[in-house]
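Table S7 (text form). Paired inputs.
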Amino acid sequence: MSKILYISSEAFPFIKTGGLGDVAGSLPRALQKNKQDVRLLLPAYQEVLDKVKKQNCVAETFHYGQHIRILETFLPGTRVKTWLVDSPAVFDRPGNPYLDPEGEPWHDNAFRFALFAQCAVDIALNRCGLSWQPDVAHCNDWQSALVPALLDTFPQRPATVFTIHNLAYQGMFNSQTFFDLGLPAELWGMHGVEFHQHFSFIKGGLVFADRINTVSPNYAKEIQQPEFGYGLDGLLRHRKDRLSGIINGIDTDVWNPGTDKLLAKNYNRRTLADKSKNKTYLQKQLKLPAKAKTPLIGLVSRLVEQKGFDSILAAMETLLSLPLQIAILGSGEKVYETALLDWAKKYPQKLSVTIGYDETLSHQIEAGSDIYLMPSTFEPCGLNQLYSLRYGTLPVARNVGGLADTVIDTNEKSMANKTANGFIIDNDTPAALIAAVRRSLKFYKNISVWKQLQHNAMSPDRSWQASARQYIDLYEQAIADNPHPI
């Protein structure tokens, strides 16, 4: 059994902006079920404190002139002990944890997450009087990436693991910020956290962690290439012996078509005929014609360039000329929101667009759709294709990142060995997207083949248990690699 300090800037159901929140809300629980002694460390945002029913102050510390309390509670619905870094001037703000009400990064984000990292180091070195010291500090994305760098300045420390959930977000600030924060001078420089005369939080994890991983094996390979490396591909190639990928699991209690209380009708592999009742219900909810035989394509996503919306919009006129319906749920950049709403207004019988996020509707789209569209330009792991597979909704997806690891293109070989579960978009063009959709519609017409593809999709175990066991192996490797063990 290892002692693991799991450090994250968000965790569902406390607070979530994306995939990191889902992972941080699920992996610690799965690790605990695998007999690991895990503690979750999270900033005490206003939204988090609003959801805490019971808390105790178990430690106090001081950094940057701030009196900081460490509050102890539990991740809701679990027995995962959670410590909250409570510094009201830094974290007690409404709304998004990273962005101000105008949608811009908080002006003091470097200060906020440097303070968070300093508190994590205190706990990792058992300097808070908690009588608990981890064997491994597991850090996630740029907001906690300073932790491995800071720990490396001590003669003895826990092992460190750094997980990249999305390399596009790096925590970049001007060089003066580094010195203003009073960080150890030895961390500056090209072999530290300096990146082209700027201060890069994420380099703290990439340079100093004992083990680095991404949220899919294919993404671990992609980020070593200039196309996906955001200028860090050289460093990642240099550390490739410490770099690996573990595909995310999903919460199979929440995402289970057989028990999902948000669905109009539950179903499983043996009762697939009941899936159509969810389709009819969804069509009526979205004011689309309730046509059982018309294929319905679903999409739940942030409306940003990464998710392939340039290709979607360029292909939209052709897509809407095909015998299908499309249901989209999401929010993001105004240019995409406006364009999608314009198309929906023009084709109300074929396209439904809901701006915002609705947990109930997201489940209903996963269950009620026949096909799920995911033409991402890059995708570190992706969760919606995993939800779709679990719900027998076949993905049409790009062959990038975690999509390439989980969506198996339907062809003669994959159909013969019963691994086929979707349709691959082979390049980032509207023409390739349209071709893949056309191919999916062709197979949709063959009822027996489509049912077999759904069975293939729904059969594998996509829970966190398998992924958690791989993380335990990764922790053991990090402990073995730690040059400064406690």
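Next pair, protein 2 of 2.
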Amino acid sequence: MIRPTVVLGNLGRIILIIGLAMLSCLAWSIPYHEAVTIPILKAAAITLGCGLLLYLSSSRAQDINFKEGFILVSLSWLVASLFGSLPYIFSGYLPSFFDAFFETVSGFTTTGASVVSDVEAWPKGLVFWRSLTQWLGGMGIIALFIAVINTLGSRAKQLFKAEVPGPVSDSISPRIRENARILWTTYVVLSILCALAYKSFGMEAFDAICHAFTTLSTGGFSTKNASIAFYSNPLLQWAVILFMFLGGVNFALHFLCFRKRNPLIYLRNAEFRLYGMIILVVSLLVFFNLQDKWVTAGLEGTLRAAIFQIVSLVTTTGYATADFNLWPPLASTLILLMMFAGGCSGSTGGSIKPGRYLIIANRTIIELKKMVHPKAVFPLRFGGMMVRDDLLINVLQFFFLYIALTGLGTVIMTSLGLDFLSGFSAAATSIGNCGPGLGLVGPMSNFGFIPDAGKFTLSVLMLVGRLEIYPLLVLFLPSFWSD
């Protein structure tokens, strides 16, 4: 049985978190006497008021059931995006609802696709909110909710697993609330280290903080129109590569490595090894495909450009230091394929994830072996554990739905007038939460020219991709709403 008052009460708490986060933007808008201060206050007041109203008018019961958990996860991201768009609308910088909603969804889902053509003309308070949405969405709104609320009951684990990306996620603690707190603490510490590194390599404090938010969240929003290409310091670009790479790693591994003081923990993880191998091999292939740039950019500059773009796409960050639209066909093809790779399970990265590829590949090998030894039993393992049939089916269905939804998105985008490459990459980068695509939505372009219907379609794909399909699609089953 679904109890609306319980769902709305918890939803009200999440809206309150979003409203409080909005107020932090005043730390930048007030000192600079920006006109955006009043619109931010207005947006925060409405958000906090609605959140408080829902919370106070709801049932005090907090132990949610299975169905309520799915509704809460899905609605949380939707309402966060709706309320999060208010500062853009009230300030007048994105007066169109579809533009504001697209930008906010892209922020919270850490996609990084943008409709903004001149972000450098925006006030600091609004740019900070734009970056903060990605940071909040990186580790997850629900994970933050679980970390600060201790009355969710036995379904907190369901909420956590529905939001944390990947087929499986390492458990640091048997208590889900403690798990969420540890992951968020690790996330905060790495974000601080990232900001300090950027500041030491020449970024201004505001830019360093905003870029740290959007790097560790693998979001990709920048305070500069040219993205990271604005900064010509090679050391800074290498630092961005490092922190993008770390953002694409399972945050549980970061914590375990710190606690046990043993870096070998990373190498013992099969998904991490595949993740690193994909980046290494593809980066080298792109580097050798860019031979014509060895003379003009130098070997180090060309290698840095190749690694930067590949790490950015694999981790689904979306930063750019080069227009890969102009790269040779092989490099462009590899760039497109990397949109379907993704960061590790339990990271802030999107897309399909290396863990799922490992499970599918191992199952394929088992099927080949069974053709030779039909009576033999070959157990399927992942991360040292047996993979149950229900998890295998889940992974295979996810892969099918992911490709099917990408195809559907491509059909819709091309029906709106985009060419195939632009339409396909727009759909792929949205459901994969990657950021830039190819063609008309390349790294030096934006999504502002896309019709409102297309922006709405891509926004839905971003939400579906961030929640990894199932929590949203299950709401469309008639049986879900029946008792």
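The mean pLDDT is 90.
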